[in-house]
Specification:
Elements (H helix, E strand, L loop, with lengths): L1 H5 L13 E3 L18 E3 L19 E7 L7 E3 L2 E3 L2 H7 L10 E7 L5 H9 L3 E3 L7 H9 L3 E4 L3 H5 L7 H8 L4 E4 L13 E4 L2 H13 L1 H16 L1 H12 L7
Parallel strand pairs: 1-2, 3-6, 3-8, 6-7, 8-9, 9-10
Antiparallel strand pairs: 4-5
């Protein structure tokens, strides 16, 4: 949105609003390459209703899963001579991960037939692919997340390369379920606790080592994951702060 706005793309639809919120918690802060367009962007986290996503038992500690679209609805972004890529571009960097680990890595993946070469590469490197229809409905998605041992996922290149602080609503559901999350570094460690329950990686080697850490002390990381969800993403806290910032429910905006 911010890049579109800075480029004059009307799809940004920024004009005509009094307040602007973003899930990129680093937008407007030093070290983040996303242009603000002279707008004050208020950070807002992805909320989760904890009663709908309870801490659940089970899940193989060695089974790391995620739910993903191989390509999103939009292409890469070009801005001031720099190109920011998609999730597919980041995932290709981590294709060898299953071969470097004794853990299982699985994706409920929506991938187009035109990307058959990428699908074949995933299989060749040991990735387990699941039909995304199994997670297409809310109950199926929740069952898949809660039946996992942990999450492993990369992020879109634009979130990584800009140090945006972006964090996925999907990962929030893993955390709430007591499933440790191992995801690519986007700068979210500036505002979220990392090290137990939530781990960030930059390199292939870091990803493999962190997966081993999670599996070796799964109970510790499960409890820490739930605690992060309660402390950082509870809908009561997130939406309460959002309403306060927006002037909703107060006598003056």
């Amino acid at each position: 949105t911010q890049f579109w706005h800075a480029s004059g793309n009307p799809a940004a639809q920024v004009e005509g609003h009094d307040l602007h919120f973003t899930i990129g918690e680093n937008v407007g802060k030093p070290g983040c390459a996303i242009p603000t367009g002279g707008i004050r962007w208020y950070p807002v986290r992805q909320p989760v209703v904890l009663d709908d996503w309870p801490l659940s038992d089970g899940g193989d500690p060695d089974r790391f899963t995620t739910v993903a679209n191989w390509r999103g609805p939009f292409g890469g972004i070009e801005f001031e001579g720099r190109t920011f890529g998609l999730k597919v571009h980041e995932f290709r960097k981590f294709l060898p991960l299953p071969q470097m680990s004794t853990r299982t890595f699985e994706i409920a993946l929506n991938i187009h037939a035109a990307d058959e070469c990428d699908r074949a590469a995933l299989h060749e490197h040991g990735w387990r692919l699941v039909d995304p229809i199994t997670v297409a409905r809310p109950d199926g998605f929740r069952s898949y997340v809660q039946g996992s041992g942990a999450e492993f996922s990369v992020a879109q290149g634009i979130y990584v390369d800009t140090n945006s602080g972006w964090f996925s609503d999907r990962s929030v559901r893993y955390l709430a379920s007591g499933r440790p999350v191992l995801v690519q570094h986007t700068g979210f460690d500036a505002s979220l606790p990392v090290g137990e329950g939530l781990l960030a990686f930059r390199t292939l080697e870091e990803a493999a080592k962190s997966a081993d850490r999670i599996a070796a002390d799964h109970h510790l990381h499960r409890q820490a994951a739930r605690a992060i969800a309660e402390r950082c993403f509870s809908s009561d806290l997130v939406l309460g702060r959002f309403c306060e910032q927006a002037g909703i429910g107060s006598s003056s905006p």
